[in-house]
Amino acid sequence: MPRVRFTEEELRELYEQQRLSIRAIAKQKRVHPETIRDYLILFGIARRSVAEAKIKYPRRSFSGDAIEKAYLLGFRAGDLNVQTANFSPTSQTIIVACGTTRPEQVALFRSLFEAYGHVAQYQSSGQLFAVCYLDRSFDFLLEQEDRVPDWIIAEPCCFASFLAGYIDAEGCIQVKRQTRASEVIIRSYDKGILQACWTRLQELDIICPPIYLVQTKGARDADGPIYHGDYWGLGIYRQMSLLRLFTLIEPYMKHSKRRQDMLTAWKNIRAHARNSEETKWQIS
């Protein structure tokens, strides 16, 4: 074998981190590709499979952070399509995608995934689409269950992050025009997730009515699409409960419009509280 032209760390950087092919490394180092193969064996560096070798863009494994994972699971439950490439269980590629009419939703998608893989964006029939190709460290996004995992329920910060992701995907935060009262409404087909969120919110003294049925399967609103399942809602209306909710989720909200709506509603509640105190003082 020729003398070593680089260290194990350098070869790992080129082959594992930068994802360069054996031929590309050989060309860069001005050696025969067989030499690079020999050094891979020498350093105990596992060769990529044929499928992996065809990966065009570099990928980075998931950080492993529990709070980030909780947010991604909440956002995935509401607004992501996730599958393995070609629906193959042995594929090394996980594809996450979303379709929307809102540019800020695509911006959020990018902020969540572009550090881990290439994000492709395109437009069709008035809709924006974003797709990202990830490695198998994102397996946790494949299973979509109508429940909140126990580890998320058990840890307040993880629950807050999950709920922020779910609200970013499915929620509406607004100040009602007539009453000037703030409210948060989440509507989805995920009865189990909404019920679990409601139960945990009560435990956190964020009081709200039980979840309710918005529409039954097969119904439709005016000329809208037919509901493919029972459609459920969760609403938080009490102003003090909303203050507790906003304090809980504020560190984790990422959707630019949803976050701005929350800050507007928060400011509105505080303004009403000050006005109420001033009125009481004037009357007394």
Helical percent range? 40-55%
Shape, principal axes of CA atoms: elongated
CATH class of the largest domain: Alpha Beta
Please outline the major beta sheet. Answer: 4 strands, antiparallel
Radius of gyration: 25 Å
Low-confidence stretches: 278-284
Total helices: the number is: 11
Q: Please state the second-level CATH architecture of the largest domain.
A: Roll
Strand order of the biggest β-sheet:
1-2-4-3
Structural class determined from secondary elements: alpha+beta
DSSP strand content: 15-25%
Number of domains: 3
What is the end-to-end distance?
94 Å
The secondary-structure element order is: HHHHHEEHEEHHEEHEEHH
Question: Which oligomeric form is depicted?
Answer: single chain
Under CATH, the topology of the largest domain can be stated as Endonuclease I-creI
CATH superfamily of the largest domain: Homing endonucleases
Number of strands: 8
- Output mean pLDDT: 88
